[in-house]
Amino acid sequence: MTPYEFDDEPARFSSRLALAVAAVAALLLGLGTGPGLLGQTPELLLGLLGAGALVRGATGVTEDESRQRAVGSVWFVFGVLGVLGAIVAYKPSLAAAAVTTFGTLSLVLLGLSVTVGIDEGLVRSLGGTLSRSLVVVVAGTVLLAGIHVALFRSVAVVTVASYGALVGAGPLVSFLVLQVEVLVLVVLVERALAVVDAWVPRRRFDRRETALRELGVRAGDVPKGVYVLLGLQFVLATTGTGRALFTRLLAQTGPFGTVVRWFLQSWVPHALLGTGILLFGSVVVARLCQLVVVNWIGREPPKTLGYAAGGVVVSVLVGVLTALPPVAWLVEWPVTDGSTLDVAFATYGMGTTFLALVVAALCAVLVSLPVFMFLVWDESTASAENGSTAGAGLLLLSAIAAGFGDAPAPVVFVGVAAALATWDLSVNASLVGREVGRDAETRRGEVIHAAGVLAVGAVAVLVTLLGVEFIGAAALVVDVPRWRAVGALALLLLALVCFAALASGDDEESDGDDSSEPEQRVDRDPWFTQFDDL
Prior knowledge:
With 534 residues, the protein is mainly α. 76% of the residues lie in helices and 0% in strands. It has 21 helices and no strands. Helix 1 packs antiparallel against helix 18 (409-436) and helix 2 (41-61) runs antiparallel to helix 3 (66-88). It starts with 11 loop residues before the first helix and ends in a 31-residue tail after the last helix. Mean pLDDT is 79; it is low at 506-529.
């Protein structure tokens, strides 16, 4: 940053006050909506914590340092889980669900708007975090599912049993299997040595390595006659006549045939060849895994690993905690027998089930990210203002939903006033930061502006309550249909929002700029064409 530049992020005091007003209003709306003493406050409190973690994570993933990016990824993933947990939790009514959903999303939008700003860079960073963490969590889900069903042990048992069945099927089948094992081994030797050469450069002559190279053969260098001969033997091995002819042929050779038959049906040669296949095949498989990981990491490994840190932490944490008997018992205790969760725990395992829910949550956010950007982002406005209006609007909808949820009138009025105050404070914070810089000393002006806004809101709520108290009784005599009253309230709120939008409009187009030079249009790819390019 040069001496002539300044930080144009939103002013700290006004932006933090806007977030505080929105959080308090959302909690009050949750307190007054729904049955029980606390209403929807626990869900909104979870959403508030999730929104804070999500915003903290979004701030971290946009940084340039790998450590901050990794910490931000962890915060972001847990924030997503907290926000979605608050939204999808059981709600007694549609109004309660709307209060929790709109209130939580408004806090997320306002938090992102006044901290990092909603622009293309933020969405690409969030998309990179979601996609990389999603791959890790999917891998962890598959691993835990395999452990739960004993996949690896089952594969080993099936492999040994299959070998025993093939060896015991007859001398011809065993002889065919032995030839296939030799062919696979010599091909794997050549591939494994090539991989080792790439990993560890040779520095001296090694006779053992030279001997192994003499055994190795490329798959393309194997004569076609070998494959034809193996095919003919396979055809004979699948028929009873072929197996009987081979057995009779060995019997005609006397003691030599007896020794050969014993050797073919013994487990010793198959075990030796199988060990060699396992050893050299492991090198080839490791190379394939290396290529997959390198391709997934991309051109900037620290950046990718930082983005994937959230998925790694969640996978490890879920896998370790669900493996502890006390934790598993505490989780299973409130689950009803025969419920969906109970069946999933028994079929796939507790860790697999929870990681599958994490995968669903990350997929939902990743899919909804383009829709969110389409509704919020606008090139003509500052990045700090893209989410302020939408966040305040969602808080206003939460207040209206609380009214339909039989919340007390004072709570609804406070929610509406808080929505307008939040919008005004956030826009003022963005304006101050853009005009004079975030580091400028503007606290006194911000305090005066905030005091005026909150005072106007308090007076409006007080006047409304007095009107309801003294004029409401007389108005009850008039029989007004409910739909007309609701429609009038909606139109009044729309008029207030439109008036506020017009009052805050700037006259940049009439500033006297008479330049007749044509505006140069910069062509660039749409924001949704790709996430963070690694």
